[in-house]
Amino acid sequence: MAASALAVGMAWAGSPAHAKTQVNFTVAEYSSKTGPYFEEVAAAFEKENPDIHINIQVVPWDTLLQRLTTDIAGGQAPDISIIGTRWLVDFASQGIAEPVDSYLTPEFKSTFIDTFMAPSVIDGKTMGLPVAASARAMLVNTNLLDKAGAKAPTNWDEFYTTAEKLKALPDTFAFGLQGKEIETDAYFYYSLWTHGGDILKSDGTSGLDTPEALQAVTLYKKMIDEGLTQPSPTNYTREDVFNLFKQGKVGMVFTFPMLIPQIKAEAPNLKYKVLPFPEGKAKATYGVTDTLMLFSSSQVKKEAWKFIEFAYKDEWRSKFDHGEGFLPVTKNVAAEKYYSSDPDIAGFAAGLPYAKFAPTIANWEEIADTTVRALQQIYLGQAKPDEALKAAATDINKIRSK
Predict the structure, then answer these.
(1) pLDDT (tens digit, 9 = 90+) per residue, 235-292?
(2) Looking at the 3D structure of the chain, how many domains does it have?
(3) How confident is the model over 111-121, as a mean pLDDT?
């Protein structure tokens, strides 16, 4: 969905002028609430700063990187954008991201939780601010488990046994397995990490050609072949899988906190529970941050930063995190009683002490795409698991050596 440079330029140019300073902000769409939320923040900011106008463009996550790449190449980069933190190394090395240390006062910096700030620091420079954070977990449909006479699993053996029991229920898929588009690789990492593997070995080479990786993907493939997942997982995005869960058709899914507000709004009668991922050799979850990045090409950095500081006020951060279902990235919001008293949020937050993050390395998206292609070949039966993983590891090592 990459727009042409002309189209993007016209979109920005169509914003109100009236001699106001224009700040262009590309927003990644988390849910239907995202756009209206940032429009509300912008309106409140403009009321206090009538000489500045914030132009907001909301872009779906699946096309965001392509959109930004096109905008940058066409000389139409925004002033600020939400990005996947995993892209930040490449943006920094290419001179696209603006270091923000000179803008970041000690007082403002102290508001952030160090764990979530750390991934945005590259070679000692702060290249952005954490804007969203989550840890992943397993959701189980407790009604379906009760009907199947199954218990919530704590390890992979129990997970498989529970899936077998759920399969016996009519019109029910035991395990919702994602196999298409963004974060298909993440669904595999959950199994990889808990089986004791890792994305990269200690020497920096790919961890896909290891016994742990083979064990992790073989389990998924076995479940596909035995009908313990929905048919043809490679046709299902994460949103597709989550929709099946909200419809009460799936017994178990791996997900992020943002699914909880969706369930409460769209399926308020659904009975579920948040649980850790099944354990193998290790406990693990995926810690994820997104970054708010200031572009080095911006001609209005001062005004853009003024808006950034405004958007990080406690009232706005609290509303954003509550609305989208994120874990807080700022200390004051994290101290709210909500985050310790709500069992769903607490269930996700419980994984933070043993959370793993995607490595902050160059060419990450190319590496992730290579992993996804191998997984899809395995899921579809087009390649043997060991051969596909070894080939992917070889390709990833070539990418790493660039």
Answers:
(1) 999 999 999 999 999 999 999 999 999 999 999 999 999 999 999 999 999 999 999 9
(2) 2
(3) 93
Same domain, 140 and 248: yes
DSSP state of 326: P
Cα-flanking dihedrals φ and ψ of residue 199, to 5°?
A: -65, -45
Interval 2-14: pLDDT, tens: 333 333 444 454 4
No. of helices (H) and no. of strands (E), the chain: 19, 12
Q: What is the pLDDT of residue 6?
A: 34
Which of 279, 309, 282, 275 is closest to 294 using CA atoms? 309
Whether 78 and 113 share a structural domain: yes
- Other CB atoms within 10 Å distance of the CB of residue 385: 21
SS3 237: coil
Q: Are residues 295 and 277 in the same domain?
A: no
Q: How far is CA 218 from CA 193, 213, 312, 324, in A?
A: 14, 8, 44, 34
DSSP conformational letter for 206: B
Domain endpoint, select from 341, 356, 371: 356
Regarding whether 110 and 25 lie in a shared domain, the answer is yes
Query: What sign results for the dihedral spanned by CA atoms 162, 168, 171, 173?
Result: positive
In this structure, the answer to whether residues 170 and 107 fall within a common structural domain is no
Which of 33-37, 112-116, 349-353 is most confident? 33-37
Which residues, at least 6 apart from 191, have a Cβ–Cβ distance to it below 8 Å?
Answer: 156, 216, 217, 219, 220, 280
**Distance (Å, whole) CA 246 – CA 87:** 31
Domain membership of residue 88 as a residue range: 5-134+288-356
Say whether both 236 and 258 belong to one domain.
yes
pLDDT digits 0-9 by tens, 325-383? 999 999 999 999 988 899 998 899 989 889 999 998 999 999 999 999 999 999 999 99
Q: How many CB atoms lie within 10 A of CB 251?
A: 28
Strand pairing report for 21-29 and 80-84: parallel
How many Cβ atoms sit within 10 Å of the Cβ of residue 262? Answer: 20
Cα gap 152→171, rounded to integer Å: 20
**Same domain assignment for residues 125 and 150:** no
Q: Tokens 């403009």 map to which residue?
A: 46
What's the CATH code of the domain at 145? 3.40.190.10
Asked if 306 contacts 372 with a C-beta cutoff of 8 angstroms, the reply is no
Say yes or no: 86 and 179 in one domain: no
